[in-house]
Design brief:
By secondary structure, the chain is mainly α. It has helices spanning 5-19, 29-49.
């Protein structure tokens, strides 16, 4: 509404100027009609100048609808056998040094003093 106020003011001003013409001898009908037609042309040009312009939207690619794929039937795959070889440990044979001294037999001095030793 506010955008049309200047157009209406211009139309009223054009009619006011055209209305001041004096018709002394008559025959000014053509001038009045010319002013009215001129005002109509200028007014329509001003009214149509601010019309909104509608631009056609860009074409849109519509994707095809989703397709349902059925899952494959369940299948059991037997696992492959796994062979694990145990590591081989090599242990050296135990070294035998004999029993500790005094471990076997009677304690010292059980049979008396030993002869031949000082």
């Amino acid at each position: 509404m506010i955008r049309k106020i200047p157009t209406v003011a211009l139309l009223i001003g054009a009619l006011a100027i055209a209305g001041q013409a004096q018709a002394r001898g008559g025959g000014n009908d053509a001038a009045v009609y010319g002013a009215i037609v001129g005002t109509a042309i200028v007014g329509s040009a001003l009214i149509n100048a601010n019309r909104p312009v509608y631009v056609a939207p860009q074409p849109v690619y519509a994707a095809p609808p989703p397709v349902y794929y059925a899952p494959p039937p369940p299948v059991y795959y037997q696992p492959a056998p796994v062979y694990v070889q145990q590591p081989i440990y090599y242990r050296p044979a135990p070294v035998y040094y004999g029993p500790p001294r005094g471990y076997y037999g009677p304690p010292r001095g059980y049979y008396g003093p030993r002869y031949g030793r000082w």
